[in-house]
Each structure stands twice: as C-alpha cells, then as structure tokens.
C-alpha cells in the first residue's frame, strides 16, 4: 500500500535507486493555488546537501511537475510530481545481497518478496521515498493555511540531549530559530550539543536517534472522524509510515499513566475573546479523537540509523550460514534533522484530508 488518505490522497512511487521518486496527489480542488517555489524549498529542507552531519549522497532534488498544476493552480485532475535520482550507487548493496542489515527492512522484505527484491539503496524502504511526502505536504499546506491552520515540527532531542524549553512564540518565530541551526532544534546551545553528539557517533562508526515534536494550530473544534479515523489514528498512521519512526505520543503522552484525573484533566474557561479554551493542554489538542481547538501536539521517537560502518552479526540467507557485515554506502549518522521536514509535511497531509472530509475545504 503506497497510498494514504481518503479525500486528499497521496500515492508514493519510485525506489531509492530507480530513475525517480515522487507522488501522485488526488483530491486537490480545481483552482487551488499551488506555491511551486515553496514545494522546492521544503524538498531542500529534507535534502542532505549542505548538511555536514548527513549522508554524502548528492541529489539536487529539483522538482518536476508532470501533470495537474497549470499556471500555479491545481487543474482539478490528479497532480504528479517527481524528482530524479541522480546519485544512486548500487555497488555496496550488491555486496549485501542475501545478508540482511540488522535494523533495516532487508530481512522481512526478502522473505516476503524474495531475495531478488530491489533493496538497492533500501528500495521502497528508503528514506528517499519521503521526497514525495514532503512535496505532497507542501501542497496540503497551500490548502489548509488559507483556513488559518499552520503546522510546525522541530527536533526535540538527539541522543538524549533534550531541548525541553520551547519558548511560547509564534510558529514563524520558532521556525526561524529552528532553521538557524543544522539539526532543526529551537535552542541554539542545545542544537550545538546535538550536532556535536552526531559528529562523535559518526567518528565512532555508529549512529544515534532522537525525538521530533509536531504541532498544529488553528484547527477548527471538532475536526476528526469518529471512531477509527480520529485525529490521533490518522496522525499515527501517517507518522508510522515514515521510516525509522518507532513511537508516538500526544500531549502528556506516556506521562498520563502516572497522573490523577485531577492533574490530567484540562480545565475549560472562557478566554479574553470569549472563546472556550483550556488552562492546560495535556490532551495535546484532542478529545474523543476530535480537535479541541487547542494546539495539536505530538512527539515521535526516531531510532538510530540502522546502517552503520561497524562489523555486525547477521546471516547469509543464500548459503544458510552465519555472517558478519560492515555496511558501506552513504548513510545519515542521525535521521532526525532530515525527518523534521517530513513530519511537518505529514501533519499537513492528514489535516488537509480531515478538512476535506469535514467539508471545510471547497
Ligand atoms: C529522511 C530519512 C533518511 C533515512 N536515511 C537512512 C540511512 O541513511 N540509512 C539507513 O539505514 N536508514 C535510513 N532511514 C531509515 C530506514 O529507511 C528505515 O529504518 C528502514 O526502512 C526500516 O524501517 P523501520 O526503521 O521503520 O523499521 C532514513 C529514514 C528517513 C525518514
């Protein structure tokens, strides 16, 4: 299943080392204005180039619109966009054939699809597939922003270094802080410590994980579809599709297990504009699967990159022996900084879909 969404439908296509990767997006209303330079800017944020701490794969990721956007607006038919894969080097993956990388998708994928499955560069299990998600997310933002809905994500922690003190500022201000450092965190001192940690693990031939926080404001009260397509279910569904995401929590998340009802409940009050608000937001902006109108807040745990240049124990599926592998090829020592743009895009996709389903978009 390479398809997500009910009314705003995204289908990803391509593979890591095939000719191209991209997305088909259906459900964008005719005449909706599409900001092409913004799609390119979002693709650039996901790109490794210029990032000292990322993979050395050199991709220009130049956006190509195949169909569905005319003169900066949606034609009302399906939109197809892609970027070319320009720097695929399959050599290191040929050496790995039959010896699955611990922590990567190789083993279950070769049992399910056979050892001849295209796992070059990770095949469809590669982080490169998120190019299509980021492009589709930029289009989703073009739909929801005119309705006053804004999305934001940022690095919350890397390797245990936590950026816990997020100032109470506008998304524009937080975004400016985030974009001023190479790990996508808000606080510059913590960001520098995170970058140092990544550099250390890279030198050590290892990798490190972390957490990303996603937020959205301006959601109309009651957004979300009861029962199975709640805001939580839809966000979690999309986020778990992002490779390397292993956990998600909303609002107070796992902490709720330790709280009393008197501590966890978010008391309601009338704010200065006469709108119902809550004193706290342990619910992360969701009650009963529906938005409360308070900020949507969630955090994701991203695992340490599986492909590390250290000897690791594995099996040879063809000779049926034990084996040791050292993963070559170009890999991110930490996926978190590059996944920030993907999480933001994914949030926009879910919200655009839920808004269309609720009849809030034309
Ligand atoms: C933006 C991005 C970049 C990634 N880069 C790498 C990488 O360089 N090396 C690697 O082993 N995994 C990388 N991954 C993660 C793998 O694709 C993922 O761990 C693998 O498909 C197994 O899936 P799972 O971790 O969700 O179980 C990346 C993921 C994302 C989102």
Multimeric status of the protein: single chain
Secondary-structure element order, as H and E? EEEHEEEEHHHEEHHEHEHEEEEEEEH
The first-level CATH class name: Alpha Beta
Bin the helical content: 25-40%
In DSSP terms, counting alpha (H) and pi (I) runs of 4 or more, how many helices?
9
**What is the spatial order of strands in the main beta sheet?**
1-2-3-7-4
Kindly identify the CATH topology: Chorismate synthase, AroC fold
Largest sheet: 5 strands, antiparallel
**Could you name the ranges where pLDDT drops below 50 across 5 or more consecutive residues?**
none
CATH architecture: 4-Layer Sandwich
Number of strands: 18
**Which class do the helix and strand fractions yield?**
alpha+beta
Q: CATH superfamily name?
A: Chorismate synthase AroC
Shape: globular
Mean model confidence by pLDDT = 93
Strand content: 15-25%
- Domains (count): 1
Hetero compounds: flavin mononucleotide
User: Distance N terminus to C terminus?
Assistant: 28 Å
Description:
The protein is of the alpha+beta class and about 350 residues long. The chain has helices spanning about 35-45, 90-95, 105-115, 130-145, 170-180, 190-205, 230-240, 260-265, 335-355; strands spanning about 5, 10-15, 20-25, 65, 70, 75, 80-85, 150-160, 160, 210-215, 245-250, 270, 275-280, 285, 290, 295-300, 310-315, 320-325. The chain has one domain: Chorismate synthase AroC (Chorismate synthase, AroC fold). The protein is built from nine helices and 18 strands. The strands form six sheets. Strands 1-2-3-7-4 form a five-stranded antiparallel sheet, covered by helices on one side. Strands 9-8-10-16-11 form a five-stranded antiparallel sheet. A hairpin with a 2-residue loop joins strand 5 (about 70) and strand 6 (about 75). The protein is globular. The model has no long low-confidence stretch (mean pLDDT about 95). Flavin mononucleotide (FMN) binds near residues 130, 243 and 303. Flavin mononucleotide (FMN) binds near residues 104, 105, 305, 331 and 342.
């Amino acid at each position: 299943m390479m398809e997500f969404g009910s009314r705003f439908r995204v289908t990803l296509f391509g593979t890591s080392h095939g000719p191209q990767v991209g997305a088909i997006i259906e459900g964008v209303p005719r005449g909706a204005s599409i900001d092409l330079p913004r799609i390119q800017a979002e693709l650039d944020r996901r790109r490794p180039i210029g990032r000292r701490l990322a993979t050395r794969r050199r991709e220009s990721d130049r956006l190509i619109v195949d169909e569905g956007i005319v003169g900066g607006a949606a034609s009302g038919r399906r939109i197809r966009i892609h970027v070319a894969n320009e720097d695929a080097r399959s050599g290191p993956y040929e050496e790995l054939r039959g010896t699955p990388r611990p922590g990567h998708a190789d083993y279950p994928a070769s049992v399910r699809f056979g050892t001849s499955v295209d796992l070059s560069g990770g095949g469809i299990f590669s982080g490169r597939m998120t190019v299509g998600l980021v492009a589709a997310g930029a289009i989703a933002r073009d739909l929801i922003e005119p309705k006053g809905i804004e999305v934001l994500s940022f690095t919350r922690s890397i390797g245990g270094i936590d950026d816990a003190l997020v100032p109470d500022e506008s998304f524009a201000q937080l975004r400016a802080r985030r974009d001023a450092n190479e790990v996508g965190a808000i606080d510059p001192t913590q960001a520098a410590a995170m970058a140092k940690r990544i550099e250390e693990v890279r030198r050590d031939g290892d990798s490190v994980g972390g957490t990303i926080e996603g937020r959205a404001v301006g959601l109309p009260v009651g957004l979300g579809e009861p029962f199975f397509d709640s805001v939580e279910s839809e966000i979690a569904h999309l986020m778990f599709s992002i490779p390397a995401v292993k956990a998600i929590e909303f609002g107070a998340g796992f902490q709720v297990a330790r709280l009393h009802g008197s501590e966890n409940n978010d008391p309601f009050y009338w704010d200065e504009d006469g709108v119902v608000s809550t004193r706290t937001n342990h619910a992360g902006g969701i009650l009963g699967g529906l938005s409360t109108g308070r900020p949507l807040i969630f955090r994701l745990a991203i695992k340490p990159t599986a492909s590390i240049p250290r000897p690791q124990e594995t099996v040879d599926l063809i000779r049926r022996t034990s084996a040791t592998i050292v993963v070559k090829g170009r890999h991110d020592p930490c996926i978190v900084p590059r996944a920030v743009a993907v999480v933001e895009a994914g949030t926009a996709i879910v919200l655009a879909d839920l808004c269309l389903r609720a009849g809030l978009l034309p």
